[in-house]
Amino acid sequence: MSEPALKRTPLYDANKALGAKLVPFAGYEMPVQYPTGVLAEHKWTRENAGLFDVSHMGQSFVTGETFAAVASAMEQLVPADIAGLSAQQQRYSQLLNHEGGTLDDVMITRLQDDGVLYVVTNAGCKDADHAHFAKYLPQNIVLKQAHDLALLALQGPKAEAVLTQHAPTLRELKFMFSEQLTLGGIPVQVSRSGYTGEDGFEISVKAADVEKLWSLLLRDLHVKPIGLGARDSLRLEAGLCLYGHELTELISPIEAGLQWSIAKRRREDGGFMGAARVKQELRGGPARKRVGIKPEGRAPARDGTEIQNLDGRKIGVITSGGFGPTINGPLAMGYVEAAFAGVDTKLNLIVRGQAMAATVVKLPFVANRFKR
Amino acid sequence: MKYSKDHEWITVEGGIATIGITEHAQSQLGDVVYVELPKIGSTITANAAVATVESVKAASEVFTPVSGEVIATNNELSGDPALVNRAAENDGWFMKVKLSAPSELDGLMDKNAYDKFVAG
User: Fold this and answer.
1) Structure pTM?
2) Which of A25, A32, A36, A298 to mutate to test binding with chain B, by most B CBs within 10 Å of its CB?
3) pLDDT tens column, B56-104
4) B56: chain A residues, CB-CB within 8 Å
5) Confidence check on the interface: ipTM exceeds 0.90, yes or no
6) Any bridge partners for residue A91, and if so which?
7) Less packed terminus of chain A by CB within 10 Å, N or C?
8) Distance of alpha carbon B27 from its chain centroid, rounded?
9) Cis peptide before A187 (omega within 30 of 0)
10) Per-residue pLDDT tens for A297-330?
11) CA nearest neighbour of A193 among A124, A91, A93
């Protein structure tokens, strides 16, 4: 029996040279950690600037005759306000199925070129997303997966100082906006966004140029390479959803607490796949809700852990759980019946057959520091 | 010191075994953030899962290579689980076991054999 060969990002050799431990992730051989380890990488990103190779993620361009045409087509598939994007503005949204479950969560940017949307999707979903777009976008909308692009993320309080040495205008770039420019002579598209809760940037660059850009950024003493292990603990502390965990084909954006990503016009008018469930849950409240959970003591509760109420009845399940280096203790997110979703609700987590006390807490665990 | 295929080490003195995880195991696990140890006084059976090591990334079970009664566990690990990373094969020990079947030791590897086993 042979497993399908794992794909590699254009930084595979560079990651190996840095001593990265490579593991299979979403069909790719990805760096889970570098020699300093997850704890040190996590802390480095919170205090300095962490550089992530996220080239496994999907990057696509969706093009229409005009912005209005492409925005209206996209709005059939996502609940966010796309028509209201200004040039270079980016939004977080979800691709929903007919039942209002989530096929993927995505970042959508209106580019300077009129009629072009730039879409970033999860690695594990990108082929299915492409098929979904191809099936449901109208004939006059052109869809292109950018296989020749790589993606880096530079995250942390020193990210701005690092990047503005190469491009001073980035100081003015606001959270969830993007800009096309050059860094050290390399053409890039930079957006002020990320997945750590810190200020930071995501940099789309030609695969052929990414190693040069990676080396250029790592030359700065405030920058260290950070693996997927710390990426996960950082996003968990930031209370951000991970597709396949907090979001699945069975979970709606309202259950996930993502109402903020759905504008008033879209809530009222609907007109997107899955709108019936979204509107119904906005009206009556969802039966289950995503919550932050703080286990008492030191033992982490992992993905799949059963959540019980104090009477021993199963009321939910942990979807992500681990250890938060910044809060220096265990933390988790999960879904519970709506009646148990209030902050300070006491719960039990069943870890290795033992009930472990825990409390529902407000998300995020670590306050975000976006540059709004 | 002897070693198991599940990456535990064991030393024996006067019928009392000290057990921990190997340097190789800790390097594979990464940063240890929590260790769950068996109860003192509990009886354990060779090859059973008796402890859990939680790293930032995942939980891993620790198997005892020998049978017997747990007579002590390492208190240091509750306040300083990273001791397992810093000193896996000495100060980062997990438990002391009063052996009930010392012949189980015969099936374990010496350092040379274990190093070869790890190298594959």
Assistant:
1) 0.95
2) A298
3) 888 999 999 999 999 999 999 999 999 999 999 999 999 999 999 999 9
4) 38-39, 42, 229, 233, 322-323, 325
5) no
6) A108
7) N
8) 14
9) no
10) 999 999 999 999 999 999 999 999 999 999 999 9
11) A91
